[in-house]
Specification:
The chain is α/β, with parallel strands linked by helices. It contains eight helices and ten strands.
């Protein structure tokens, strides 16, 4: 029995195929763009292809993310906060606090037995999201995939104190003019982002264990800076699954929904 979780994010759309044995058997990620439904369908079909399954074996589809209502072939939709909580506790069952740094948003949530007890979102400013790091990299003529190797060579992060993305960009320009290295500027941008994320986590009365997710957390330096600021180890889903946590959580919720339907007799048992 297979289910699919589709996370339609502002930057990327991720799909996961999940088995009733508790395994991710296929996954795919595409740029979201402006046609959210098309992005969902493309990522879903690519994930099925990677799993090597015929489409009819996927029994239930759950959408999440900011574009969750734009997936016409879904069975149900769930909030990304609920999906992230379920995905985080799948990877790390003792998770109490989740930090999700996405391309356009940042979210902190406090969990109680895997359910969201309280949450906070960042202010509507790019300085508190992954977009700020990407914009900083592009200004210095680096590609997004080069951020990790670049910042790994940093000796000392420069200070970026502005809470507004526009003013923070001015600080970056000033640092470049003053001769600071791109690695140290990029490192400073990460520290600035983490400062904001920790403040958000404090507002939900954070407590360990901490699990961090989102595309920006695929950079090892970002994880280390978060851990240093919290003075605590942090959990990170393995490999690229750090970007798929919400999709995994949505697929797990699909499995649970299927089980309830079968117990209620609303779904025929597979032969």
């Amino acid at each position: 029995m297979y289910t699919a979780g589709i996370d339609v994010g502002s930057t990327y759309t991720k799909s996961v195929i999940f088995s009733d044995e508790g395994r991710v058997v296929g996954r795919a990620m595409v740029n979201t763009g402006f046609r959210l439904g098309d992005a969902a369908l493309r990522s879903y079909r690519q994930a099925i292809a990677q799993a090597g399954l015929p489409e009819h074996l996927v029994s239930y589809i759950v959408s999440t993310g900011y574009g969750r209502y734009q997936v016409p072939f879904r069975d149900i939709q769930v909030t990304d906060l609920s999906a992230q909580a379920r995905g985080a506790t799948f990877f790390f069952p003792n998770t109490k606090t989740v930090l999700d740094v996405g391309g356009q948003t940042m979210k902190a949530s406090r969990l109680d037995n895997g359910r969201v007890r309280s949450f906070r979102l960042n202010d509507k400013c790019a300085a508190g999201t992954g977009a700020f790091l990407e914009k900083t990299a592009r200004y210095m003529n680096y590609k997004i995939e080069e951020i990790g190797p670049l910042v790994a060579t940093s000796k000392e992060p420069v200070t970026i104190s502005s809470v507004c993305a526009v003013f923070a960009e001015s600080e970056v320009i000033n640092h470049v003019s003053a001769g600071a290295t791109p690695a140290d500027i990029m490192h400073g941008a990460m520290v600035s982002l983490v400062d904001r994320s920790v403040q958000l986590m404090k507002r939900v009365q954070m407590e360990p264990e901490f699990t961090v997710v989102g595309g920006i957390l695929r950079f090892e330096t970002m994880v280390r800076v978060v851990s240093d600021h919290l003075n605590s180890p942090v959990n990170v889903p393995p490999g690229d699954l750090v970007q798929y946590t919400a999709a995994v959580g949505a697929a797990i919720m699909g499995q649970q929904r299927l089980k309830k339907l079968r117990e209620a007799g609303a779904l025929k048992q597979a032969a």
